[in-house]
Amino acid sequence: MSKSCGGACGGDATSAADTDIQASSEAPGRWVSVYAVPKMDCPSEERMIRLALNGFEEIRALSFDLSNRRLKVVHDGEADPFTAKLKTLGLGASLQETVAANPETIKAAEFSAASAKQESGTLRWLLGINALLFLVEITAGLMAQSTGLIAESLDNFADAAVYGLALYAVGHSVKRQV
After folding, report:
1. Are 95 and 33 in contact (CB under 8 A)?
2. Residue whose C-alpha is closest to residue 100's, from 18, 36, 22
3. Cα distance between residue 59 and residue 77, in whole Å
4. pLDDT exceeds 90 at position 134
């Protein structure tokens, strides 16, 4: 493998997310499309592809093999929309094959989606806790006329604002990134 990024990418040759995806007719509606991406040789190109494809709701999972410069996409329906998007990135992406997905591949994709929902749920809990602490402390601080409690409540308000902004950014700006 040639290192066209000059070794500045900081990643190893294969992604930890790479898995073997094989064909089977037991999974109706789910497909695996394999792409050759000759100019994808480091994690920065992987990240660029992830950002480009993140807005497609049909995509269930992405699997990168940087050493062989291949991308496997588990998806529902046609591959044409994201094939066109990959070609606009200028990495030389070309569709090699599309085959039916096996049940193990579908389970792995569903587990990945559940993990993302769990992360969002954690942020929501933290937002709720900080908002509740803000309300309790500002009320107690005003009743007790304590500047210390009022200052602490404002700190919790700032934390809640950060968590709220993080949830908003993750949920709304992904489609605008590429």
Report:
1. yes
2. 22
3. 9
4. yes
For residue 146, report the phi and psi dihedrals to the nearest 5 degrees. -110, 115
Where do we find the tokens 């809640």? Answer: 160
Name the 3-class secondary structure at 104: helix
Tell me whether strands 59-65 and 70-76 are parallel, antiparallel or unpaired.
antiparallel
CATH 3.30.420.10 fits 30-101, yes or no: no
Mean pLDDT to the nearest integer, 90-101: 90
Residue 3: DSSP 8-state: -
Which residues have CB under 8 Å from 84's CB, separation 6+? none
pTM of the model as a whole: 0.51
* Torsion of Cα atoms, 45 then 43 then 122 then 151, to 10°: -90
2-39 tens-digit pLDDT: 445 555 555 444 444 444 443 333 444 688 899 999 99
Q: Which two tokens stand for residue 164?
A: 């709220």
Rounded Cα gap, residues 109 and 58, in angstroms = 12
At 112 the pLDDT is 62
